[in-house]
Amino acid sequence: MSGISRRKFLKSTVVAGGSAAAAMSSTKSFAMKEFEGYPESMGVLVDLTRCIGCRTCEAACNKEHGLPEPELPFDDFSVFDQVFHEGKQKRRTTEKAYTVVNRYDTKAQGAPVYRKLQCFHCSEPACLTSCFVNAYTKTKEGAVIYNADVCVGCRMCMVACPFSMPAYTYDSALHPQIIKCNFCYDNRLTKGKPPACVEACPQEALTFGHRKTLVKTAHERIRSNPKKYVDHVYGEKEVGGTSWMYLSSVPFDQAGFNTTLQHHPILDNTKSFLGIVPMVLGIWPALFMGFHLLAKGGKGDKESKDKVEVHGE
Amino acid sequence: MKIRKIRIITGIILALFFISAPAFGVDDEPPTSVRIDSLSHLYEGVDFDHELHVDIEENCSVCHHHRFSSEVAADRCAACHSECGGTFSPTCSDCHVAEPFTGKHIRQMEEDPHRFHVDITGLKGAYHLKCLNCHIETGAPTECVDCHERTDAGNRFYSSGKYAPTGGKSGGSHE
Ligand code: SF4
Ligand code: SF4
Ligand code: SF4
């Protein structure tokens, strides 16, 4: 016979139940405080069923931002065969390219799928939350922009970003900085013009508009063509919503998307963590490695570790 | 004197109007060729062989939606448009605007509650989605230069041809 009396047992379950209820209500209050994103936020809906992998968007971005000459011409499609890290990783955004298009030969579809990749411009960006000098800003137009003048080069944002978007100019010894897509904020977004990549895309695979409207447009495209699309708008909910969203004809994991991302912002984790952990600079790397793993679906599996190692390069 | 001047100018404007937008009724013969070049910059314009395409596809509605007396091609359109006659214009650019993503146009599409068609592609998107999808399906040519030559500005844009990075090769196809 155990030492716990029935009465005690009942009492403890009540307490446990109570704390569970308390936990639930605190989650709820979190949810109620949910930031829905700026109402005027712009966004881009990337429709993978329209993309033909022409790389015109890459060229447009390169020219718009005066980025370095590419290694291969933008009409050289052999780049789609490039793989890194023992074939596990396709091309990624770099300090020379804010955006890259990759090809996926999927099981679900005879023809390949192409995916344009750039900063997702999250509604509640982990890069921003992780930066302790506030080098990042989420503007009311939806862009997540970065200020190199205050950046101290700690590269926490690179680890925190669930999409591994920020790149770093390692080879600039004097003024290294973070490089990522800025939604063409200065020259276009603030002037009522679409991003350069959107304007250049011949297929209109990129639709620019208010994020709110684009969510509706996306669901309407699915509704009116249910056989064509997977019934999911990637980025509508992932990590609390992103300004760039995707539609696809193949399951998203087959087009290179991380489908294990949480649906609430990574900020929430940060908030509760920061509540208990003293803000000692020394522990930040370990802390954000934790966020990174959380962002990857909380799985500290081998794949995530590989990805983390990639950052350290 | 003044009135004559006005008359001449009006005449010129009207003449220009008729040259650029020939009135094209339901019973008229379709054009044999259409020059598509309003957007040409990275590529030359396209001399679209309309006659050839009419021979290949008899149902005008495949491209012109519910235009003319031909059957409405898409079920989705037919739900409302099977009985309502043709669209007001056969010209792509009358509905598909050249700049669909200006702040002004985005607002216009969002703010008119009576507008049903809100997800209309721009002109460039309309051309490429319509032409290329059909070319892929029917095994017709699909490389960019099969329809329009690359311009010098285009080569510069794609860092290709004489603008190719040193050491890099130029041009390519999906094959
Ligand atoms: S995708 Fe990454 S870099 Fe871009 S806003 Fe989100 S967290 Fe920041
Ligand atoms: S939005 Fe601007 S910066 Fe971002 S990928 Fe497109 S062209 Fe480049
Ligand atoms: S320009 Fe458009 S169609 Fe071409 S690769 Fe980029 S997104 Fe795809």
Most extensive chain contact? A-B, 38 and 34 residues
CATH class category of chain A: Alpha Beta
Residue share in helix of chain A:
25-40%
CATH architecture of chain A: 2-Layer Sandwich
Task: Identify low-pLDDT runs of chain A.
Answer: 1-33, 272-281, 298-313
Q: Name the shape of chain B in a single word.
A: globular
CATH architecture of chain B: Alpha-Beta Complex
Instruction: Give the helix tally of chain A.
Output: 9
The biggest beta sheet of chain B is recorded as:
2 strands, antiparallel
| Straight-line distance between termini of chain B | 66 Å
Largest sheet of chain A: 3 strands, mixed
Rg of chain A (CA only):
22 Å
Q: Count the beta strands of chain A.
A: 9
CATH fold type of chain A: Alpha-Beta Plaits
Main structural class of chain B: mainly alpha
**How many H/I helices of chain B?**
8
